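Example record used in the benchmark description.
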Amino acid sequence: MNPSLLRAFGPFRSYRAIATDVGQTPHDVVYAENKLRLLHYEPLTEWQQDIPILLVSAIINKPYILDLQPERSVVRRFLEHGFDVYLVDWGAPSRFDSTLGIDDYVARYLENCVDDVLDHSTCDAIHLFGYCTGGTLSAIFAALYPQKVRTLGLLAPVLSFDANEGIFRLWGCEESYDLKRVVDVCGNAPGELLSLEFSLIAPFEYHLGCYLRLYDHLDDEEYVDHFARRLRWGFDSIDVPGELYRQFLVDLYRENKLLTGRLTVDGRLVDVANINLPVLNVIGSDDQFIPPEASLPFLDAISSEDTEVIDFPTDHVGLSVGEASHDSLWPRVCDWFEGRS
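Model output (structure tokens):
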């Protein structure tokens, strides 16, 4: 890089410290198990909705994408609408966690978190809202324990695995991706590898396009501030337990057992037809990782007649942190849950 370009990027380097200022909405840890933490956020209103909401983060990246900065925080949008907000932070697994699978994440971790939220409230069911692969786990939970879920919200969820776009082009093909070698060598699926794989879905955007836009906005402090935080999150991946990774790629991605009724969790067959409760599916029409066809067929497989799709013109990450999303999308999402509280 030539000296003039390095000088131009000088202001950005000074903003690296800002990127550490993420996930700052005040909260307490009300439950912990192994690496998992259940966060409970302090209210922002004098009154609160009757039913608490539990946000279930994805299993790959850290959950602060849902609380990136005050003006672009999904957590804060719910708090501002009077919701009692909890969030599942799965934590970073070690090699000792390599045998953990969907049984552990759904029938142990997630059920314990839901039960803890129910214990803290006067309700017998909660709003459950899952992001990306957290949406997959939330849907499985709702099928197994429908009596504990008042409504099911899904944000860019991975539910139907017959899609051939986004990450499915890589992970869905056994010939081009040797899952066994990854797990045998590493024990867990390394977060750095997962970040690289996602970057290969949109290589120009990840490796050049975003930096070219940054160069055009170096004098815009708000833009640089947000860019630094978002960039940190994009490369702040965590490992995924080897068994959980295998189940996602083999049982779900390659064999589509969830929607075909062949997935077994904790000795029970997962039947999504058991889901007869209000369901909201929020998707990005420009999502380069999880295309709409990876989630929409799920709504045809469940029994609920109260379903809604919000198709918003943004990408996978923009759903959570885009300026337009927080202006237009999240008020609609909060209103949907409020109408069913």
